[in-house]
């Protein structure tokens, strides 16, 4: 039995006890029956009214609970729809009171969720509006009066983060462009003129609209200013080159140049004005110093002729160079010519520099070849001999490569220019071939000269006799070898001595003259030195002469001469 049922039974018992007690009181008092009936009816009505009132209140409570349940159900359905949540499922087998409490609690939770989402939406919308105002972009497409879903809120947050990043990027770009614009305007001595330029330079940078159009306009403005600045720099640079050229031609003192050095670096408007004024002043000085300026230009022209490998005919073609009538017209012709030469050199600079490089390498190669014939180089203990040989080998290897590269460049140049590439009036490749040919001829001549010199020495030795020269060998430290000399007894007859091998001398007179080409024998047995003839002999003629000499020498050695003839001494027994 429930406690409430036990309590109800106790209430009935209490009521019966109370009625019995009232009956006893009425009996003791002696209240008549009709009054007892009346009093009992009052008690019944009182109790009945109290119970009815309590029943009415409980029924009202039940009605309110049912109404609350119905209202909460409707609200719950609406919230689930707004929050895009699945419908709420109620628990079964529960009392009305539990059902009402459960539904009401769920409604409170969803209302709180709805309130939070709407607050987040409001904050995000306000932030998005600020970003849209700054970036001049469209707001996020989300109804501010509808409850957003969680996915929509996440997308909105990502949009805000992306917009914030874009704002920071554009702001940084704006600050950088603004700084460059201010610097350009300062270099150009220009103040903001249009309203846009004033907004960029003068207004607070936080208030500037960072729209795509404004950023594009900023870049356009910066490009225009940089273009004008570049034009100013180009004009200033042209003035500087002209001023420097006039300074050199007019021989302006260094002190005077240094006073003007500030304007030779910067390119602001004031510098441009100063450069223009200096140019006008120098042009007036040039007009007053026509002869000196013309001669200075001629020096530059001569240098360019050398750089461009102009032949004498090409130089002679510029007739004004040799005129002494120093007029404005003559100066103008010289200025036009030097501009033409400079342009010609710049257009073919790579080719000219390649030719200069070949000439320098060729000169160094010839110097090393010349050193190779110097006997004193073997006494050098500093390692220069090895370095020179290595350098010569590298040059001998690199020169053909350079010539091959130059040949390709010259072929392309000649095809483009439709004329031959000349160096000092001669085709460069032909000039290179002639240099190699001359080098080979020189090497052959040097070789022949050494052979002739050796032949002469052999002939002199055969005529007069000579000591046998044995190459000195290095000895080990601490070892001494006594010199051994073959001693041959000799008998000299006073007044009857004569040059040794006189008969052989007579037979070889003709060969001696042919081989040496340097002298003829005298009666005394010596030689008279003659002037060295031009090296116009051929290899075959020299070789033929030397072979004849060797044949005669072989015959002489096979005669029955005394075997003990040494060092121009003849023993007579």
Would you kindly provide a brief summary of this structure?
Helices cover 69% and strands 2% of the residues. The protein has helices spanning 3-29, 33-82, 96-135, 150-187, 195-201, 212-250, 254-259, 269-288, 290-307, 312-316, 328-347, 349-372, 384-417, 428-464, 502-507, 509-516, 539-557, and strands at residues 422-423, 426-427, 519-521, 527-529. It comes from Salmo salar (Atlantic salmon).
Tell me about this structure.
Residues 222-285, 431-461 form a coiled coil. It is a single chain. This protein is mainly α. Helix content is 69%, strand content 2%. The chain is built from 17 helices and 4 strands. The strands form 2 sheets. The chain has a two-stranded antiparallel ribbon. It has a two-stranded antiparallel sheet with strand order 3-4. Helix 4 (150-187) runs parallel beside helix 6, helix 6 crosses helix 9 (290-307) and helix 12 runs antiparallel to helix 13 (384-417). The chain is elongated and about 200 Å long. It starts with a helix and ends in a 16-residue tail after the last helix.
